[in-house]
């Protein structure tokens, strides 16, 4: 399908020249001769690329206003700004507002075509990446046999059948968005939108705009996350980062089931299932005054807790197999042969959790090592700064041999127990001890057994 280019210029001759030039290059075009026509075209359907004159019939910065309007709808649409009154300040202003390129009149036709070609390529690449990421993300499964993972899988099955609000807590990279997507995918809303609003990534001045949308003076509407998610699911990720005044407005929406857009007078009613997540302890945030207790109780109808990967060691070998297969398929290469019992992997503290593990396997896939030894070297090099062996060595150098040995044994056996979910028989078999001897050793080292 050919890309569609919107051309906006109040000069008939220039508009026709650009239109003919773009069509001859094989692109589809739409044209607008003034600000209101352009606004109508943008609101009717976003183009793949827009070429906007800065000064139209409404004011000196019409093009910048239209640029901002496009970016509120889809920040990935490239916009080329053209001006017959060009200066450095204008160029900087347009680029600051997200313009893809700035070109002054009279323009070189070949240069403009080059800009358009690169803009189309840029748009298509971002679109393909998003489609790939969404496809990959939606196809991911929750993998693991740890008690925490099994419990979460069971919780998802039950929660998905309800309309309850859900709060997901867990460290960064542990899979909070994946859990939310699974709840949506298994719910009655699965064919409706799943919208993500990340509280940590928003400009502090744009929370209301992003949530509630805006009614502009010219009559156009910029829709917020709540309306975009209508009849579907809205995930507010890192809700702990949303300011208190906006928290109170979210609470009001949950209470009244309606809201007003920014600069709007009419109530907007929506049917949205709300899922929230945070890597912070919201109870602590309440205590220090950063989060509203009444909002916490509203969003926390059902709570899912994801443990750090370092506490789910038995999940790691299964995740390695799973990601090795998935990532090898996506790169169209032979499946990676990664030793699931690699000591560097099992003993790493995984501060980045599952995301860090997935990134490691993707790094291996990109480098495409041809032997197990080279794979092992990549793992060792990637994880060496947080290596368990280095930590043990460093901690052991300043103590007597007996104490160092006990320290090592305690760390080692604790990790092995976690790896086998507390199963004494499997742990004893792996470490080469009798069950009874392992029981005595654990008791002697003060390691609590768990089932």
Keywords:
451 residues, alpha/beta, Rossmann fold, Helicase, Ruva Protein, domain 3, 4 domains, five-stranded parallel β-sheet, 20 helices, 51% helix, 13% strand
Q: Could you characterize what this model shows?
A:
With 451 residues, the protein is α/β, with parallel strands linked by helices. It has 4 domains: 4-128, 3-Layer(aba) Sandwich (Rossmann fold), CATH 3.40.50; 140-307, Rossmann fold; 315-383, Helicase, Ruva Protein, domain 3, CATH 1.10.8.60; 390-445, Orthogonal Bundle (Arc Repressor Mutant, subunit A). Helix content is 51%, strand content 13%.
How many beta strands in the DSSP annotation? Answer: 14
The SS-based structural class is alpha/beta
Give the termini separation.
58 Å
Per DSSP, the total helix count is 20
Largest sheet: 5 strands, parallel
Question: What is the overall silhouette?
Answer: globular
**From the coordinates shown, what is the CATH architecture of the largest domain?**
3-Layer(aba) Sandwich
The largest beta-sheet arranges its strands as 2-1-3-4-5
Quick one: CATH superfamily of the largest domain? P-loop containing nucleotide triphosphate hydrolases
Q: At the third CATH level, what is the topology name of the largest domain?
A: Rossmann fold
**Number of structural units classed as domains:** 4
Helix fraction by DSSP (H/I, runs of at least 4):
40-55%
Pick out the low-confidence regions: 387-397
Mean pLDDT: 85
Gyration radius, in Å? 28 Å
Strand content: 5-15%
Task: Please give the CATH class of the largest domain.
Answer: Alpha Beta
